[in-house]
TrEMBL record:
Name of the protein: Receptor ligand binding region domain-containing protein
Receptor ligand binding region domain: residues covered: 120-326
UniProt organism field: Coregonus suidteri
Location(s) in or outside the cell: Membrane
GO MF terms, alphabetically ordered: G protein-coupled receptor activity
Length: 341
């Protein structure tokens, strides 16, 4: 019996070797080999791993493709006209922060800003008043507007400026029905933040679209070589800081603190103020810099730190602020709140 078992094992091994030789020959001839069940399952388990990775990459790229400029919501307020004026206002105070590992999507605006909303209404009222004026009615010309919410965010504002500068469709260029082809944006009103105005101005410069800001005061915006189409109705920080230093000197306040924001406006104003204060013999006891965005995760801790700095300098009777009104309100609440001493 043992001899018979050995003969059967030898025959099985011989058949396996011959099957392997035949499979090798088929591979060399380009034929499809016949896999054993064990081999099939081994390769079947290995193949899906690459497929899963490919599937994950495709899904992630699909989410990125879906997060295009087209996802950006339509303008908050529009009105037809022969001449269209764009508007950019901070109707919200910030955007909702996305998780670090999430796919990019259009930002969600948070914290309604009444001042920005009022400014947008003021633009609408100005356009409607102009349309009722004898000058435009005599000429038979009407003004329209296209207003966007910047959400106090540079990226959101750039999406709006992309809408202002987008090229007409092929049908519109070929002279299609004008009712479906709105006229181009001839000028843009805004923004309030210097940081947003600087970013938007670079994009509007490409199309030579005039931009008129009602609140951006950064000194850099006065450089016509870099911002040829930018205009504003307020003076730059250079004159603002000069007036503040003159006021401090006349009042004999020579020991002050400074609170500013970490943005183009705050940094520019801080540098201008410190340089002029030094010349006038005014000493700066401390400089506290708050996050420029009100929705920044570091905003609360920065306000607490600024309040602690103020408490450590009781001899400082004057604080110069280049921060936003909402940030100063939070700072006052921190100073007079429970445990403030």
């Amino acid at each position: 019996e043992r001899q018979r078992d050995r003969e059967r094992e030898t025959a099985t091994e011989t058949d396996t070797v011959r099957e392997g030789e035949r499979e090798w020959e088929r591979n060399c001839k380009g034929e499809t080999p016949k896999l054993r069940i064990g081999q099939y399952h081994q390769r079947e388990m290995m193949a899906p791993m690459g497929d899963v990775l490919h599937l994950l990459v495709i899904l992630f790229l699909t989410e990125i493709v879906n997060a295009k400029v087209e996802d950006f919501k339509a303008a908050g307020a529009t009105a037809p006209g022969d001449i269209i004026i764009g508007g950019l206002f901070s109707i919200h105070e910030g955007v909702k922060k996305s998780p670090d590992r999430s796919a990019p999507h259009a930002s969600q605006c948070v914290k309604f800003n009444m001042n920005g909303f009022t400014q947008a209404l003021a633009m609408i009222h100005a356009v409607e008043s102009a349309n009722r004026s004898p000058v435009l009615t005599t000429l038979g010309i009407s003004l329209g507007y296209r207003i966007h919410d910047s959400c106090s965010d540079v990226t959101t504002a750039l999406r709006a400026s992309a809408d202002f500068t987008k090229e007409p469709t092929t049908d519109c260029r070929r002279g299609a029905n004008t009712s479906t082809c709105p006229p181009p944006i001839m000028a843009v009103i805004g923004a309030s933040s210097s940081e947003i105005s600087i970013s938007v101005a670079r994009q509007l410069n490409l199309e030579l679209i005039p931009q008129i800001s009602y609140a951006s005061t950064a000194v850099i915006l006065s450089d016509k070589n870099r911002f040829p189409t930018f205009l504003r109705t307020v003076p730059s920080d250079l004159y603002q800081t000069q007036a503040m230093v003159q006021l401090l000197s006349d009042s004999k306040w020579t020991w002050v603190g400074v609170i500013t924001t970490d943005g183009d406006y705050g940094r520019s104003a801080l540098d201008s103020f410190v340089s002029q204060a030094t010349v006038s013999g005014i000493c700066v006891a401390f400089k506290e810099i708050l996050p420029d965005s009100l929705t920044s995760p570091d905003s609360e801790s920065a306000v607490r730190q600024a309040a602690a700095t103020l408490r450590r300098h009781p001899n400082v009777k004057v604080v110069v602020s280049f921060a936003k009104p909402t940030q100063m309100m939070y700072l006052y609440q921190e100073l007079i709140g429970p445990g403030s001493g």
